[in-house]
């Protein structure tokens, strides 16, 4: 296990470096000037800008610039937000909890829906339940998150007036009221994200369970007289979940993409809405850093999925 | 009852043949419905503007935010512009982006997958590492970053509308080739060892000839399925970008862009957001059902 972990960590580090190279290459290839705003400002003399360029090492060849940038990132110096006037690192740390909270609860909710529905559908394939579930799943992942979000606002905030449609980080309430308000304002963003995920996961769970449930060892377990519940939970599910873990890991980039959209719709103050507002404000350091953080999050959760995979399936050996 | 000799003739003549791909596709009811709906939608956005020739940018403040009526079957937006005309026009752009981005993804994916599948050793390993790296990149943030960085330059080069169109197709397609590459490589690895390819090789067929004439046509099934699904994904990607206000400019009313403009008027003019949303949903749902039907029809495990 230690060797496996070490190798997997090394691969993850390589991926982080790869992602940073891709991001930096995109930035370097882009036409225009990072100092575009400053250059067009007549109040700043050109020699001041030339000075800043030299200080930031912008007159050096690209690979040196990349190494300098990467070293600065590693040391925690993520630059300075031109708009918010604080360190990019601080800004991102302020925003990350909201994103992780929304994404995390959405994943948990999606799993809580997809697992039982997928298993039940696979236990009676082509039954009425199965057909309804798979039709709903198709509808679920054909509904883009931005449209579901608007529909939810229209239904639950405007028509029924049950839930607030703006997420606030600075709730005035304290204690139990705070928990209640927090819960109320999280319901819509979390559900929008969860429904989309649950729809595609239900299909994975169903097809995966369907494949395992026909295997001989399941027949053996049944003929030993084990109750169906035990057969499913202890024998089928564990093996059926292995491919599901891979599919879930492969979909992580989509999950974080969905988080950007939901954060933007419900104004959740996470890194997704930070990315959009920075793009609107041409705040390049923040844009670069947030994109990089998204890449790292995806790689990190992929790593977790791989470790989980290994734990679920000891037969897998890393070759 | 028939004698043994008659029985033999029957078997030879009327042996039930495996259903063709088309027959299998037809049996998937939702896929057929999806094909019809998508066909109608395409016909509507192509031919609709010829019949419903209200200009998409005719501003009429007296009909501001009007509900659907005879004069405006789908109502109007905050400038009194006719929504039906805008939806029809925007549908052309949205669908064109979807199909073009799919082509980009399929071409890049097939190239990468074919090269990886034909070359053993370091090149294959490198290309697959690249594929895995791209699969791990967060697509939407990267899309946003690229569009943010390149938008203005391309606008200056080829004009705002064409510039954004080319950019969106290139990046949406350019970030969606990885599943195709994996599928093509896997197909190539098995097909290139089959006897008919070996026979072609023995006859002295060049590598290119083997690939183009013998391997690729047999590897197409999964590519078609993946390509179909990626049309839906590309349409969602474009709509998402436009919905975030970072896709097409306001004078190009793609479905996502109309939603973006409509979202602040949800309480007073819900129809404005509902119709483009429904259009995206219907299109994507039809394409997904078609993809599912094609998977049933073209699954190599079912052929034969």
Automatic annotation (TrEMBL), chain A:
Matching InterPro entries: BPD_transp_1_N, MetI-like, MetI-like_sf
Annotated TM spans: 9-30, 100-123, 135-158, 240-266, 286-309
Keyword entries, A-Z: Cell membrane, Membrane, Transmembrane, Transmembrane helix, Transport
Predominant location: membrane
One Pfam entry name: BPD_transp_1_N
GO terms, biological process: transmembrane transport
Subcellular location: Cell membrane
Protein known as: ABC transporter permease
Organism name: Fertoeibacter niger
TrEMBL record, chain B:
Transmembrane as UniProt keyword: yes
Tree of life domain: Bacteria
Record bears the keyword Transport: yes
Cellular component terms per the entry's GO annotation: plasma membrane
Cellular localisation: Cell membrane
Topology term for the membrane: Multi-pass membrane protein
TM ranges: 31-52, 93-114, 126-150, 162-184, 211-236, 273-294
Entry keyword set: Cell membrane, Membrane, Transmembrane, Transmembrane helix, Transport
Residues covered by the ABC transmembrane type-1 domain: 91-291
Main location: membrane
Entry's Gene Ontology BP terms: transmembrane transport
Family: Belongs to the binding-protein-dependent transport system permease family.
Protein name: ABC transporter permease
């Amino acid at each position: 296990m230690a060797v496996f972990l070490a190798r997997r960590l090394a691969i993850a580090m390589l991926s982080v470096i790869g992602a940073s190279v891709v991001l930096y290459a995109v930035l370097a290839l882009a036409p225009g000037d990072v100092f575009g705003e400053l250059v067009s400002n007549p109040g700043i003399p050109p020699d001041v800008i030339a000075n800043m360029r030299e200080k930031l090492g912008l007159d050096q060849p690209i690979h040196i610039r990349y190494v300098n940038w990467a070293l600065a990132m590693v040391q925690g110096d993520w630059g300075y937000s031109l708009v918010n006037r604080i360190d990019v690192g601080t800004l991102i740390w302020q925003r990350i909890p909201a994103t992780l909270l929304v994404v995390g609860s959405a994943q948990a909710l999606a799993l809580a829906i997809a697992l039982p529905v997928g298993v039940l559908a696979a236990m009676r394939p082509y039954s009425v339940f199965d057909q309804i579930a798979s039709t709903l799943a198709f509808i679920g992942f054909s509904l883009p998150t931005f449209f579901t979000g608007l529909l939810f606002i229209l239904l639950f905030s405007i028509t029924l007036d049950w839930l607030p449609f703006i997420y606030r980080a600075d709730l005035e309430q304290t204690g139990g009221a705070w928990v209640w308000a927090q819960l109320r304002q999280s319901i819509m963003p979390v559900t929008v994200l969860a429904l989309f995920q649950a729809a595609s996961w239900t299909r994975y769970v169903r097809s995966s369970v369907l494949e395992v449930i026909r295997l001989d060892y399941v027949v053996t377990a049944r003929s030993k007289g084990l109750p169906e519940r035990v057969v499913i939970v202890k024998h089928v599910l564990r093996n059926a979940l292995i491919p599901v873990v891979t599919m879930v890991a492969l979909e992580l980039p989509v999950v974080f993409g969905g988080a950007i959209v939901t954060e933007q719709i419900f104004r959740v103050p996470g890194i997704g809405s930070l990315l959009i507002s920075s793009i609107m404000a041409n705040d390049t350091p923040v844009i670069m850093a947030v994109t990089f953080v998204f890449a790292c999050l995806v790689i990190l959760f992929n790593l977790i999925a791989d470790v989980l995979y290994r734990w679920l399936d000891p037969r897998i050996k890393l070759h | 009852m028939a004698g043994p000799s008659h029985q033999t003739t029957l078997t030879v003549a009327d042996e039930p043949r495996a259903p063709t791909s088309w027959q299998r596709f037809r049996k998937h009811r939702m896929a057929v419905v999806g094909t019809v709906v998508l066909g109608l939608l395409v016909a509507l956005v192509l031919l609709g503007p010829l019949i419903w020739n209200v200009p998409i940018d005719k501003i009429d403040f007296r009909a501001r935010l009007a509900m659907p009526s005879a004069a405006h079957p789908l109502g109007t937006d905050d400038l009194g512009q006719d929504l039906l005309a805008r939806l029809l026009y925007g549908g052309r752009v949205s669908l064109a982006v979807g199909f073009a981005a799919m082509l980009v993804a399929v071409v890049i994916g097939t190239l990468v997958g074919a090269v990886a599948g034909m070359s053993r050793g370091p090149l294959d390993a490198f290309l697959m590492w690249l594929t895995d790296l791209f699969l791990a990149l967060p697509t939407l943030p990267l899309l946003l970053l690229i569009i943010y960085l390149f938008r203005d330059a391309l606008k200056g080069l080829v004009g705002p509308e064409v510039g954004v169109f080319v950019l969106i197709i290139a990046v949406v397609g350019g970030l969606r080739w990885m599943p195709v590459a994996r599928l093509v490589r896997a197909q190539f690895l098995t097909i290139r060892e089959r006897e008919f390819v070996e026979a072609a090789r023995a006859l002295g067929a060049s590598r290119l000839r083997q690939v183009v004439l013998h391997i690729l046509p047999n590897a197409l099934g999964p590519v078609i399925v993946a390509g179909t699904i990626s049309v839906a994904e590309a349409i969602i990607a474009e709509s998402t970008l436009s919905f975030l206000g970072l896709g097409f400019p306001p004078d190009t009313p793609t479905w996502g862009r109309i939603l973006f403009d409509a979202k602040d008027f949800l309480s007073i003019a819900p129809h404005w957001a509902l119709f483009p949303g429904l259009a995206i949903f219907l299109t994507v749902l039809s394409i997904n059902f078609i993809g599912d039907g094609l998977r049933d029809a073209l699954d190599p495990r079912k052929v034969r």
